[in-house]
Amino acid sequence: MKISVTVTLKNDVLDPQGKVVMQTLKNMGHKNIDNVRQGKYFEIDINEQDKEEIEKIIVQISEKLLTNTVIENYKINYK
Amino acid sequence: MKSSVIVFPGSNCDRDVAVALQRFQIKNQMVWHEESSLPKSDLVVLPGGFSYGDYLRTGCIASKSKIINAVIEHGKKGGLILGICNGFQILIESKILPGALLRNKRLKFLSKNIFLKVMNTENKFCSKYKNKNIIELPIAHNEGNYFASDDLIRKLEDENLIAFKYCNNEGKIDKNSNPNGSSNNIAGILNKEKNILGMMPHPERLIDPILSGEDGSILFESLLK
């Protein structure tokens, strides 16, 4: 099964890279862009059929490795 | 006194800190990250560098190494742990120390000498800074912007767990003397028991007048006391 995890910075954490991207978009003429936050995206192939088991594993790896829960949130997308 | 310096793929200050330790008659051993136990050590050092090429998040992959469990145990038993630069990032990612280290506020890799105020001299790493509490050390990092919740920052301040803050040459701690955007100008923190220190500046790089100063020596002298 293919699963993706999106990791984003929490709202109160400063994201200077996102700010630079936003400023660049504005400089390119996109005046209607209000905010950009940069994150990370993981595609994971998992050899497991049981849905509950899959969820358990993905939550575990998201919290233990993919995300630093002090500063980041994650979102799991099941395909 | 005996020490172990943990070596990860991509560590590059491991030998510098080993030279510093030996200079102060601390018997040091290098320990590869795949080991599962430590040799008898009073002090464990996580050195600076770019472990695992800073993949995923700085210090993150190294924090999952085999040896880290032994390091955590060493700390729990009251053994000394010093994390410098990438070593501090590894301590943070291992949750041995709290908070997070973000990318520098102005997105630049910083490599220069900065001034620090020693905020806590009542610990094994900093006791000899009593006579000199404004010091100069080099920094060399891209992710040194210390971040934590307001509650945690307050706790660190209230419990006197901040070891170093960035300041100017007169000891003034303000926005202008903050190189990387760290909360409250934090450059290094201690755990509650004060046997674990994580810091972004490099004391091992200033241990000889030939290398432009000796403010780093005082930290190693404190360890010997």
Report on the architecture of this protein.
The complex is a heterodimer of chains A (79) and B (225). The model of chain A has no long low-confidence stretch (mean pLDDT 94). In chain A, strands 2-1-3 form a three-stranded antiparallel sheet, with helices on one face. Chain A starts with a strand and ends with a strand. In chain A, 35% of the residues lie in helices and 28% in strands. Chain A has helices at residues 16-27, 51-66, and strands spanning 2-9, 39-45, 72-78. Chain A has a single domain (2-78), classed as 2-Layer Sandwich (Mth169, Chain: A). Chain B is α/β, with parallel strands linked by helices and 225 residues long. Chain B has helices spanning 14-23, 67-76, 86-93, 150-158, 217-224; strands at 2-7, 27-32, 43-46, 80-84, 100-102, 110-118, 134-141, 145-147, 162-167, 186-190, 196-199. Chain A binds chain B through residues 13-14, 16-17, 20, 65-66, 68, 70-71, and chain B through 56-57, 60, 64, 93, 98-100, 102-103, 105-107, 147-149, 181.
Annotation keywords:
heterodimer; A: 79 residues; alpha+beta; Mth169, Chain: A; three-stranded antiparallel sheet; B: 225 residues; alpha/beta; Rossmann fold; two-stranded antiparallel sheet
Name the shape of chain A in a single word.
elongated
For the sheet with most strands of chain B, the description reads: 9 strands, mixed
CATH fold-level name of chain A: Mth169, Chain: A
- Which structural category do the helix and sheet elements of chain A fall into? alpha+beta
The fraction of residues assigned to DSSP E strands of chain B is 25-35%
SS element count, helices of chain B: 5
Looking at the structure, the CATH topology of chain B is Rossmann fold
- CATH homology superfamily of chain B: Class I glutamine amidotransferase (GATase) domain
Mean pLDDT of chain B: 97
Unreliable stretches covering 5 or more consecutive residues of chain A: none
Which second-level CATH architecture of chain A applies?
A: 2-Layer Sandwich
- Oligomeric state, counting identical vs distinct chains: heterodimer
Q: Note the main sheet of chain A.
A: 3 strands, antiparallel
Query: Which structural category fits the helices and strands of chain B?
Result: alpha/beta
CATH class of chain B: Alpha Beta
Spatial strand sequence of the major β-sheet of chain B: 2-1-3-4-11-10-9-6-7
Q: How many domains would you count in the coordinates of chain B?
A: 1
Number of helices of chain A: 2
